C-alpha cells in the first residue's frame, strides 16, 4: 500500500501568528488561504489552521517514559537528520520546549528521538525520529505508567 497524505484541520486564535509559526519557524509551505483558514504543506501532508478566536488548548497530560505528554497532539516522524535540524531550528527561534529533545525508550523496542512544543495558539506538536523505521509500530510495549 502506498502511504497517502493525511489531512488535519485544527483551531488557531490568530492566523498571522499561525502563519509565522508554521511557515517561518517550521518551514511549511503555505497553500491556499482565506480570511478564516490557511493550508500548509506539513512535511508532505495537508494541515489547515482554522480561525477560532476563542480557541483554548486542552490541558490533559499522560505519563510516557517519565514525561507528561500533552493530549491531544499531532506531529510527524522525520529522519534522524531532519529531526535534529528541526530541533536546532526551533531552539534558535526561541520556541519553548514542553519536552526537550531526547531519546525515548532507550535500548528498547520503539526507541525514538522525540520533542514536544506548542504553536502560538497552544496546540501541542510532537516530532519524532527512529533510527530504524521498523520500530514505528514495535509491539514490545514499555511498562505501564501511572498518570502524572
From TrEMBL:
Ranges for domain VOC: 4-130
Pfam families attached to this UniProt entry: Glyoxalase
Gene3D superfamilies: 2,3-Dihydroxybiphenyl 1,2-Dioxygenase, domain 1 (3.10.180.10)
Protein name: Glyoxalase
Cross-referenced InterPro entries: Glyas_Bleomycin-R_OHBP_Dase, Glyas_Fos-R_dOase_dom, VOC_core
